[in-house]
Amino acid sequence: MVEDASSIETALDSFEPPWVVKRDVLAAGKGVTVTSDRNEAHDALVAGLGQDGFVLLEEHLSGEEASVLVVMDETGYVCLPASQDHKRVGEGDTGPNTGGMGAYAPAPVATPAVLQRVIDEIVEPMHHHLRNQEVPYRGCLYVGLMIDSQGTPGVIEFNVRFGDPETQVTIPLISSDLAELLLACAEGRVSDIEVEFHSYYAATVVLASEGYPAPSATGRVISGSEIEMEEGEIRAFVHYAGASFDDAGNLVSSGGRVLSATGIAPEIGEAVAAAYEVIGCIDLEGSHYRSDIAYRALQRV
Ligand code: GLY
Question: Does residue 74 share a domain with residue 48?
Fold first, then answer.
């Protein structure tokens, strides 16, 4: 942790590039700078110090990202299916970081062997720590992972909340009663309940306002988003985020990530296709979405 501008150079010397500079605050998924340019890393450290009074400088982890949402209380925990988010704004994971432009689950990179390591090496110790707090944690622990080519999981971040858009692709895969799980968590009874999952895949594609992730357009009318599709076991529907109604009752954009279209299907390709079928029916002037969500999973099929 860097708390003083005079220690920046020494801190930078203690890591190999690329440097990872991270604000340890809520930053809408945009609090991290990863760079091999020492001046840029220096500037990010100075900016973080100015904003928060402290900033983290971390080891760079390489590999493939995955997220595991863990619903926990002091009695136990339930890992939801591992998902993979797409944080960059552009196709092929290019361009600036965003809060997430799409996701899918279960993510094949999190094989059963990887997941077992995640549980043994990360979830169990964190649960042990959190359950032994004076006020034990009850809620969702978001475990942001980097999985290297050997299948070794490293932690990028923990959040004490669900993820966006990871939630859109994990909650629909729960086949048992979600409300029962959340109530049990709130009341400290997680170990008493059985949580079951569909053997389906889910994929979600985020529609963002013009300009996002920079300050983006608001107040534009959204049309076509009432669409839902269902064909046999394949379903797709819309989740709203940065949307609201204006005084005239029109559905309008109100923030960067406006909505997402989520497909659920027995195969990952079908889930992705269903999500794109729905998002293709929605009109919002200047909006954009990535056309390659789940490309890593589709390459593995
Ligand atoms: N999608 C990243 C996050 O929710 O933090």
Answer: no
Q: Which residues form the pocket of ligand 1, taking CB atoms under 6 Å from any ligand atom?
A: 29, 85, 99-100, 159, 163-164, 166
Residue 163 alpha carbon to ligand 1 centre in Å:
4
Based on the domain organization, do 278 and 214 belong to the same domain?
yes
- The answer on 68 and 54 residing in a single domain is no
96: preceding bond cis by omega (within 30 degrees): no
Cα-to-centroid distance, 166 and ligand 1 (Å): 7
Helix (H, G, I), strand (E, B) or coil at 103: strand
**Atom of ligand 1 at shortest distance to CA of 163?**
4
168-208 tens-digit pLDDT: 999 999 999 999 999 999 999 999 999 999 999 999 999 99
Q: Which of 85, 22, 30 is nearest to 59 (CA)?
A: 22
What is the number of the ligand 1 atom nearest to the C-alpha of 159? 5
Range of the domain at 246: 201-300
- Using CA atoms of 124, 126, 128, 130 in order, give the dihedral in degrees to the nearest 10: -150
The rounded percent of the chain whose pLDDT value lies above 70 is: 99
Per-residue confidence (pLDDT) for residue 36, from 0 to 100 = 95
- Closest to 264 (Cα-Cα) out of 36, 136, 140, 106: 106
Q: Are residues 68 and 161 in the same domain?
A: yes
Identify the band that residue 26 occupies on the pLDDT scale cut at 50, 70 and 90: confident
